[in-house]
Structure formats: structure tokens, C-alpha cells
């Protein structure tokens, strides 16, 4: 498995001969006007333009309602992708999207004749009851014969849900955690994604997975950056399992696939 971090929550995962793109956000830095006079600010552009990524076989879209997970350029990319997997709600709002209910699976055909199975798993975008404000979100589990098992958290803030997923699908080889403690005034500053402290808790539950943090930089509402994550994992004795990958660089996480 290789991963190329584009920025924010956007990463290209190469697994089993397929390329899967998480939460596509390719706009240049700008402010987005939101209802109620709020503003969402993108601070950095993509490390790799979408046009330079090559073939993308599937998009793993945790949800479609927020610009940091699906911006204008990312939305324009979707019609060209053979499989776009997201929430059932996203499937009603965007033509061609396949919605996955919790624990529902979708098979992608691999070039070698095998199958890469993508399973939708629960995610909670904030504290209990946040769905009414932030909407329904999904995470993903990637699995297949002879392949590492990978967890992609999506915009999830719940360690309890990580435990459910680990109990059901573990052990994992790699976990791509949307950390950064994203926050909004709509929920009195409660974290919408894993805080660094919660990411450390999740890492213990996901042992022995390699932990790849994304969604920690590039947007003004992310409150805890990569340096915070590195320090916290070091303090917890988990540095050997943490991989903070350089932007735009295809980085091998496992051998032989």
C-alpha cells in the first residue's frame, strides 16, 4: 500500500492495483461564505493537482455537505470517476454516487482478477446528536485477499465507534485518521473530528496498525496540527506506529502490495 497526501483530508490510496481518492478538495486557498454569515477558510492549495494524479478508480467521500471534504474542484471531478462511494444521503444529492449504509459493502474489481471490498462504517461528525447540525458521515474499511486491511475514519470524532469498528474488522494494518480537532461555533467549539488525544486512544484500539493522520492542516477550522499529533504520539510511546507523510509524495506503508 502507498498513500499520497494531497492536503487536508484528501489523499490518494494505492492498494491492490487500484487508486482510491479520499474526500477530494482541490480548490486554491480562499474563503467560502456559509449560511448565517460564517466563513470557512482554506489556507493551502493541493500538493498535487487532480489532473496529475493519473487514473482514479474510486472516490471515498465521507460526506458531501462541507467544502473541506468536497470543494468545487472536487465536485467537478466526480463524474469522471468510475465509483464514488459515500453516504446514502449523498447518493440522493449527487448523481452517480453509490450510498453505503453502515456495514454495507461494495466490491471493486482489481486488475489481477481479485476484489477489493469497501465497507461503509459508522462515523459521528461531532458530539452525540451532532447529525442534526453536521449531517450523516461515513468511514470506510478496505479489505481483500492478500491485501492489508485499512481503516479510513472519515470525519469521525467518536472513539467508541472506532472501538466498534476495530472489534468487528481488526486487526488493521493501516488506519488513516481524520484528526486535527476541527471545530465550529455551531456546536460551541466541540470537536467535529478526532482530537489528538482521541487519536492516541484510537491508535491503542487499532493496534498494531500504522497510523496516518490527515485532516490536520490546510484549513482554518482545524485546531490541532501535525506537530501536536507527533508530540502526543511520542508522549504515548507510539512514535514507531505514526507516519506523518510528506505532501505530494507517494509513501509506502506496507511491503509487497
Automatic annotation (TrEMBL):
The keyword Hydrolase applies. Transmembrane segments: none annotated. It holds the Pfam family Lactamase_B_2. One of its GO terms (molecular function) is hydrolase activity. InterPro entries: Metallo-B-lactamas (IPR001279), RibonucZ/Hydroxyglut_hydro (IPR036866), UPF0173_UPF0282_UlaG_hydrolase (IPR050114). Residues 19-215 form the Metallo-beta-lactamase domain. Keywords: Hydrolase. This is MBL fold metallo-hydrolase. It comes from Kribbella pittospori.
